Structure formats: structure tokens, C-alpha cells
Amino acid sequence: MEELSFTKKNKEKGKAEKIVKVEVLSAGDGRCLAQMVVAEEHQNTFGTLHGGFTATVVDEVSTLALMTTGSGHPGVSVDLNVSYMKAANLGDKILIDAKTLKAGKRLAFLEVEIKKESGELIAKGSHTKFVSS
């Protein structure tokens, strides 16, 4: 499919910093399946996938899933929770599976599973977003 990079602009310096680089494998009907390879810039001081980066992946990929529900709007985060089960190392390919559990008039509820290519669960996330009708 398509490779997406989410960026945050530093307005003072005019630079763009890469936050998340994922390859979207499929997206539609409230779901998004993506993959990425753990690189140096994704690591913590212990050499494994950084927890904050993992939370960012949960946020970004679940938002893509929500955007396929019809309105196309990303919404605004109300709550984000991540449970960490296993470390991922440099070079590991990880799969990110996000799905919309419910998209109501005001709130949307999403869940994300991040797994190694072998199927081992790395992290599980839940994301609640405010959506305007």
C-alpha cells in the first residue's frame, strides 16, 4: 500500500521532525492495519522500542482507523491508554492493528494491538476521541 509519515512542524525553525513512519497495509470500515520496522530513532536508552513512541503509534494509527468510518474527521483525543507486554528490538517488524469499536455522535472508542511479526503481543492500546457530529 502506501507509506505515510506523520510530522510535527517546528514553526520557529521551519523544520519537520519525523514522528511515526508506517506502511499502511489496509484501511477501511473503521479499521487500519499498518506495519513498521523498529529503527534507532524509535529506541529508548535500553535499546528497545520506546514506550512514548509506542503511545504515539497507538494515537496515529487508531486515528487513521477512525477516519475511515465515514466522517473522515480525526477527532480530538480524550483518553489514551497503553499496556506494555513485551519489548521490541532494533530491526523487529511490528504490525499495528487498529479498529473502531464504536463511533457515536460525540465520542469514538478505538483499540489497537501491536504485535511482532511472529504474533507476540508487544502492546495493547485503547483510545477515546471526541468527534463532532
Radius of gyration: 15 Å
- What's the architecture in CATH terms? Roll
The fourth-level CATH homologous superfamily is: Hotdog Thioesterase
Largest sheet, described in full? Answer: 7 strands, antiparallel
Q: How would you sum up this structure, described in words?
A:
By secondary structure, this protein is mainly beta. It has a single domain, classed as Thiol Ester Dehydrase, Chain A (Roll), CATH 3.10.129. Helices cover 13% and strands 53% of the residues. The chain contains one helix and seven strands; from the N terminus they run βββαββββ. It has one helix spanning 51-67; strands at residues 2-10, 15-28, 31-37, 76-84, 93-103, 107-116, 121-130. The chain has a seven-stranded antiparallel beta sheet with strand order 1-2-3-5-6-7-4, covered by helices on one side. It is elongated, with a radius of gyration of 15 Å. The protein starts with a strand and ends with a strand. Mean pLDDT is 87; it is low at 5-17. Belongs to the thioesterase PaaI family. It holds the Pfam family 4HBT. It catalyses: a fatty acyl-CoA + H2O = a fatty acid + CoA + H(+); hexanoyl-CoA + H2O = hexanoate + CoA + H(+); octanoyl-CoA + H2O = octanoate + CoA + H(+); decanoyl-CoA + H2O = decanoate + CoA + H(+). Keywords: Acetylation, Cytoplasm, Cytoskeleton, Hydrolase, Lipid metabolism, Mitochondrion, Nucleus. Residues 46-122 form the Thioesterase domain.
